[in-house]
UniProtKB/TrEMBL annotation:
Residues 120-187 form the BON domain. It comes from the Bacteria. The keyword Cell division does not apply. It comes from Actinophytocola oryzae. This is BON domain-containing protein.
Length: 192
């Protein structure tokens, strides 16, 4: 997996005409830990972090260029995520700008890398279970298995209409490739 696969975009940045106040506003309004500072050509020339904001005076018209961190580390879109994680850990970095031909095209934050650790099948399973729980309420009656995007839902279905509804709900989850339904074997009477 590469930077292009996990990076966040569009990128919120501050240009060199911005102030510390502008950068702090960008951080707080968007919930970022860092924001890149770009020149008039869109090239990354620095990074402004929460730490930079705490050290600077956000009330005045202090230029962001006087408070940003330089030089800034960047990665290319084809940089392997393992390499990005190593660089972040070694440099105590919260995020890295992704640059192609000198221009800012995305950001890779720690949370982007953490998402990679959660397998996509697990995310799909959670999404399908959540929808089925909303539909069925407290009577959770189906089990969900996912393998490479293929969803199998097993359990008791009231009728064909419910089967169709359950399959349709599952298909709305991003990453689902196919949906299969397996009805539980008919129960025999006599047991309580």
């Amino acid at each position: 997996m590469r930077a292009r696969d996990v990076m966040s975009r569009p990128v919120i940045s501050v240009d060199t005409r911005g102030t510390v106040r502008d950068a702090v506003t960008a951080l707080t309004e968007h919930g970022f830990a860092t924001v890149p500072v770009v020149d008039e050509d869109g090239r990354v020339i620095g990074i402004f972090s929460e730490s930079d904001g705490l050290r600077a005076d956000p009330h005045g018209r202090t230029p962001v260029t006087s408070a940003m961190t330089t030089p800034v580390e960047v990665v290319a879109p084809d940089t392997d995520v393992a390499s990005i994680a190593e660089r972040m850990l070694a440099g105590h970095l919260r995020a890295l700008p992704v640059v192609e031909e000198g221009l800012l095209i995305g950001m890779v934050a720690r949370r982007d890398l953490l998402r990679v650790l959660v397998r996509e099948d697990d995310v799909i399973t959670g999404g399908v279970r959540g929808l089925l729980d909303q539909y069925a309420g407290t009577r959770r009656q189906w089990s969900v298995e996912v393998h490479e995007g293929a969803v199998t839902i097993s359990g008791d279905f009231a009728d064909d209409a419910e089967k169709s509804l359950v399959a349709a709900l599952a298909r709305t989850v991003a990453g689902v490739t196919t949906v299969g339904l397996t009805a539980s074997p008919a129960r025999t009477g006599g047991e309580d």
